């Protein structure tokens, strides 16, 4: 299987403080990779280096290479806007825009000029909402405010919004951490479903979630990648003692 | 642990009561002062208000006269100030909030704050020097520009404050969809802050409507209906000043009536802003 993302010797700094140490890993195409680890271990920071969201932090500095489809995304000629279109992101807290449900999904399509006509725009919005398993719940109120949706629905709306611009990779930063078990289950089912078309990297605090949805799991600790393996192996017979201790709940 | 009141508890309750009544009476005092002023103006001014007073131009004493041209002049100059001041102020506020985390932004912020604190008569003198002198005469244009200069820093700073209230998560959401930063500012952040910005802008309008000093040098006054921006223009505030400083009782009465119109307008703008923004949420 092809590697969609390939990271080599990545170091990351907030000002003088180093947050990530010498991280190398590969994300195969159309697989789900989960990042686990205690709070502050750098998993979210690492996730945000993959679509250069850290660029918005003035003091952030990256050293090392991140290749997406064989292209170094930190190379001087890289267009960050094009990169983010290819590598979409879903955040921990759902962050719909203060617009209607329809406009939320249509926004990314419009700014990137993906649609060819009004009908095409409508079709794309509908498809994205279908793919995010939200269509049936919102089809009769597309023009009402996105803030009228429940927390779980808002998060699926954000996923639909990300899908609508046709990314190839979706980064998810603890997408279900603020949701109840039923809404969480829907998101998890969705992740497994989306794997058929997309490459997904998901950060999670919930180890059961990692074991349920992912093909591979990476365990981070204090800014270092401790272990990266097939999920089955990680949860049954990890190579590192530290991984085992964390997964079995002996610390963290 | 006993739950009956000890002397210490009684003491605390006493202090609490005293403090609450003290702050409450200060609040009553402030409100009473405002009501007193508005009430007094209403009593003194109301009897002189008539349709003729609202539409007529000033006349020699004894022949009636009114403030029609002053109302028009104030409206024109305030509108001009808003047309110049709002876009510049809002754009500057967007810059300060979205891009202004550097030495340049800090400088602009400091200058804006200083400008807000400068007595408005000084802005009048400044505009007199840079607009009136080169033009060779006072004009509505100069008056409008002076009011705009007063408005810009107020609008810029309130816009900045309002934009800073927009959660960062919303910006990141748009950036993650491949939106360039200017589009994020323009069609996500600005609409999200729109009602707050509108409030700030309208309060700035209310503020400049009541300015007198900057207009004395720049727009001067006029006894006639004037629609031309390059001619001296009357305003409510300057006309109030003229009537109030006149020697005759009739003029004083007209000053009170004009004051009532001015205060009423400002009050209406404020109330309007509050009701409109309340409906949004």
Strand tally of chain B is 0
Span of the ends, CA to CA of chain A: 33 Å
Q: How much of the polypeptide of chain B forms β-strand, as a percent range?
A: under 5%
The most extensive interface, with participating residues per chain, is: A-B, 25 and 19 residues
Largest sheet of chain B: none
Give the helix/strand class of chain A: alpha/beta
**Unreliable stretches of chain B, pLDDT < 50, 5 or more residues?**
none
In this structure, how is the largest beta sheet of chain A organized? 6 strands, mixed
Question: Would you write up a description of this structure?
Answer:
The complex is a heterodimer of chains A (252) and B (281). Chain A is α/β, with parallel strands linked by helices and 252 residues long. A 6-stranded mixed β-sheet of chain A has the order 6-7-8-3-9-10, with helices on both faces. Chain A has helices at 43-49, 80-86, 101-112, 118-131, 135-138, 151-164, 181-194, 207-213, 231-236, 241-247; strands at 3-14, 17-28, 32-36, 60-68, 71-72, 87-90, 169-173, 199-203, 216-221, 224-230. The mean pLDDT of chain A is 92. Chain B has helices at 7-46, 51-55, 68-98, 103-117, 120-135, 140-164, 168-175, 181-209, 213-218, 236-245, 249-280. The radius of gyration of chain B is 24 Å and the shape is flat. Chain B is mainly α and 281 residues long. Chain B is 77% helix and 0% strand. Classes of the chains: A alpha/beta (252), B mainly alpha (281).
How would you sum up this structure in a few lines?
The complex is a heterodimer of chains A (252) and B (281). Chain A has 252 residues and is an alpha/beta fold. In chain A, 37% of the residues lie in helices and 27% in strands.
Topology:
The complex is a heterodimer of chains A (252) and B (281).
Chain A: E1 3-14, E2 17-28, E3 32-36, H1 43-49, E4 60-68, E5 71-72, H2 80-86, E6 87-90, H3 101-112, H4 118-131, H5 135-138, H6 151-164, E7 169-173, H7 181-194, E8 199-203, H8 207-213, E9 216-221, E10 224-230, H9 231-236, H10 241-247
Parallel strand pairs in A: 3-8, 3-9, 6-7, 7-8
Antiparallel strand pairs in A: 1-2, 1-4, 4-5, 9-10
Chain B: H1 7-46, H2 51-55, H3 68-98, H4 103-117, H5 120-135, H6 140-164, H7 168-175, H8 181-209, H9 213-218, H10 236-245, H11 249-280
